[in-house]
Specification:
Blueprint: H1 6-23, H2 31-46, H3 52-76, H4 83-94, H5 97-112, H6 116-124, H7 136-183, H8 195-219, H9 222-232, H10 241-252, E1 254-257, E2 260-262, E3 265-267, E4 271-273, E5 276-277, H11 280-311
Helix pairs in contact: 1-4, 1-11, 2-3, 2-7, 3-7, 4-7, 5-6, 5-7, 5-11, 6-7, 7-8, 7-10, 7-11, 8-9, 8-10, 8-11, 9-10
Family: Belongs to the CobD/CbiB family.
Keywords: Cell membrane, Cobalamin biosynthesis, Membrane, Transmembrane, Transmembrane helix
GO molecular function: ABC-type vitamin B12 transporter activity; threonine-phosphate decarboxylase activity
């Protein structure tokens, strides 16, 4: 069966969340590492010559749809009563809450202590911009932007797709999001080959991004968040990062966005949110917003799962 029964869905939900809370991401033999190496090799082989968009489509389908099909095939080998274990492991594989919180704390702690060199090195691990000349407010802003956006990608989109399609859904999102992170750049190398990966991720994250932005607004400064979302998000080049970061900045009462250096070139980005420039304290406030949002989503999804179980 592709769809789990309500009871088995709840069991898989609890297993995935429990493993994430206790263990975080696997430190060794992480499946995404192997997937990334496979993607690198395939891109090196196919991203050349003509018809690069078609080649990118072929690579995306082979890696993402092929990966989901393999998961479904392997899960079908289990007895029906145990297939929820596979879905629970898939949810654990996709979630990145604990890892994200750890990365943000690694930026905020030295930043609060005035150790800008360590804070720059920490933020450079999770953002693609040039961090070598960032001052304290730039470090805090880069970390907070990453926290808000990756919260939508690594936590809430995964939960959304697990709620919709269980293990296959959450795996579909995580693999597609990984390829977007690897191939979705608007550079000469990936502009054509990575176009399908970028557009597919936009489609898969459209609904989760807006639910995340709404959650940020409900749990922060609501009027500021909704105003920033409505006025500023359309100016951002990403259709999903814009609403998430604008609403998050407004919810926290800080200012994000503005000029940033990517791959040696300065980009003029619109301002997001309203209020003061970000600080180390705002980074931790951002983590608290993510934690409250996560708790809200878990309560809602758990309640919906319980109602499905009662009605079945």
């Amino acid at each position: 069966m592709l769809e789990l029964s309500p009871g088995h869905w709840l069991a898989a939900f609890a297993l995935g969340l429990g493993l994430e809370a206790l263990l975080g991401e696997p430190r060794r033999w992480h499946a995404l590492v192997g997937f990334g190496r496979l993607a690198q090799g395939l891109e090196a082989s196919l991203n050349r010559g003509r018809a690069r968009i078609a080649r990118g489509l072929l690579a995306w389908c082979g890696l993402v749809l092929g990966g989901v099909a393999l998961f479904i095939a392997l899960r079908s080998l289990l007895p029906d009563a145990l297939q929820w274990l596979a879905d629970g492991l898939a949810l654990w594989f996709a979630l990145g809450a604990r890892s994200l919180f750890t990365h943000i704390a690694a930026i905020a702690t030295p930043l609060a202590a005035g150790d800008l060199a360590t804070a720059r090195a920490a933020v450079a691990r999770i953002v693609s911009r040039d961090c070598s000349t960032l001052e304290a407010d730039g470090i805090a802003a880069a970390g907070l932007e990453s926290a808000l956006e990756n919260g939508a990608d690594a936590i809430f989109a995964s939960l959304c797709w697990f709620a919709l399609l269980g293990g296959p859904g959450v795996l579909l999102h995580r693999l597609a999001n990984t390829l977007d992170a690897m191939w979705g750049y608007r550079s000469a190398r990936f502009l054509q080959f990575g176009r399908v990966a970028a557009r597919a991720d936009d489609v898969l994250c459209w609904l989760p991004a807006r639910l995340t932005a709404l959650s940020y607004a409900l749990l922060g400064h609501r009027r500021s968040a909704l105003h920033s979302w409505r006025r500023q998000a359309p100016l951002w080049d990403s259709p999903n990062a814009g609403p998430v970061m604008a609403a998050g900045a407004g919810a926290l009462g800080v200012q994000l966005g503005g000029p940033a250096c990517y791959h040696g070139q300065w980009e003029t980005r619109p301002l997001l949110g309203q209020g003061h420039k970000a600080t180390a304290a705002d980074l931790m406030r951002g983590v608290q917003l993510l934690r409250r949002t996560l708790l809200l989503w878990l309560l809602v999804l758990g309640l919906l799962g319980g109602l499905r179980l009662c009605w079945s």
